[in-house]
Amino acid sequence: MLLFWFRRDLRLHDNAGLYHALETGKQVLPIFIFDTEILDKLSNRRDARVDFIYQSITNLKKQLEKEGSTLLVRYGKPTEVIKELLLEYEVEGIYTNRDYEPYARERDEEVKALLKEPSLDFIRFKDSVIFERSEILSLSGTPYKVYTPYKKTWKKAFKEKMAAPFPSEQHHDKLLSHHKTPLPTLQQMGFEPADIPTPDPNLAEEVLHRYEDTRNLPALDATTRLSPHLRFGTVSVREAVLLALQHSDTWLQELIWREFFMQLLFHFPTSAQESFAPKFRHIAWRNNEENFQRWCEGKTGFPLVDAGMRELNSTGFMHNRVRMVVASFLVKDLLIDWRWGEAYFAEKLLDYEQASNVGNWQWAAGTGADAQPYFRIFNPDNQVKKFDKAHTYIRRWVPEFGTSAYPEPMVVHSMARDRAIAAYKKAIALAAG
Ligand SMILES: Cc1cc2nc3c(=O)[nH]c(=O)nc-3n(C[C@H](O)[C@H](O)[C@H](O)COP(=O)(O)OP(=O)(O)OC[C@H]3O[C@@H](n4cnc5c(N)ncnc54)[C@H](O)[C@@H]3O)c2cc1C
User: Fold this and answer.
1) Which of 338, 340, 363, 397 is catalytic?
2) pLDDT for the residue 433
3) Domain segments of the chain: what residues?
4) Are 92 and 26 in contact (CB under 8 A)?
């Protein structure tokens, strides 16, 4: 009997690892582990991501029980849980899908070591991306650090070998027959239902057709909201890419950014902690706590920044254009370390994904592999004129905008801009010795 371990692939259809497990012809018992190593670090006990995972797991379990099988759901440290399962069941091996984040890779190495002694298989598959690890390399065989040539090679490789789906849903007869099993409650794991729902993605044709023209306008509901679903695998990336091919190349390019950042973090795991470009590792950040607090609360006096932060705080989402503006404002105008902003986003975003978050923060900070040049600094007022001219988005999130209750700008942008450029220049000079 094989165990199939669900992690960030919470669906029964087009699931590569599940498909391969079922294809062996052996009986397959699906499991899910609420990982205490991750959950213990979350300070918000109403975390919307935990709630979303919980609901997705409940659905999966119901579907599997309809098929006469079950989903074994445990709460604990994965290696400990797996040890218990090896004692409870006659396990011949564990199948799962790959997760590329540094923590997940370490965890999987521990599991592999644990299974070595009883000589059990631990087989991992590519599922959450079209191309992984070193599948897309430059001509010299090194990982790409710049997006545009990465994208070209990605597209060429995709043309040569389209990503066929894995029809796991057609092999459910191989699921192990099992009585229903208990599901730990959220409360037993120390959590409560969240106030913030995770919306379904909107992949309607008209959204994708209009995407190129409207994707930068935060007042419109013009993007797909697919990100948390790709994060947790409730939608298959292969389905998403097929839709992109049919309807929008611009949208496809966004999906490729996601894979670009994933391979970057895979090849350069320390970029989660330090600036990718060595010359920017010693910027003299101001790191003013009070300034940071005002940014977090959306009280900077810059209406697009404030609208974005308030949207994030109340919904767990922020429009991509506005994410770029708030990130630039924090790092350049307030000279606060990008890692502070990255950590705040990590706590709040429903779609938080380490590779995309770190990659985009470093892009905005100008410290990344393929980043915005350090001296190109968004002017928050111009961004309003370009992308929210009628103040529709701003008024939605900042109702007091335009009244005396709205704060004055907390810095003078032109001064802050010069200050940032000087700080970056100094860091470059320092690095050059
Ligand atoms: C500072 C900052 C931090 C970010 N942090 C995250 C994060 O933690 N998790 C995350 O998924 N995205 C992150 N993004 C990228 C982007 O903002 C979101 O993916 C997007 O807003 C999600 O909305 P959507 O699904 O409607 O996107 P759509 O516009 O419909 O795009 C479709 C999909 O493409 C991918 N995508 C789009 N833009 C990007 C991008 N710039 N980088 C990587 N993938 C992209 C996402 O998977 C997204 O769901 C961040 C961007 C910035 C500027």
Assistant:
1) 338
2) 86
3) 1-127, 129-164+202-267, 278-431
4) yes
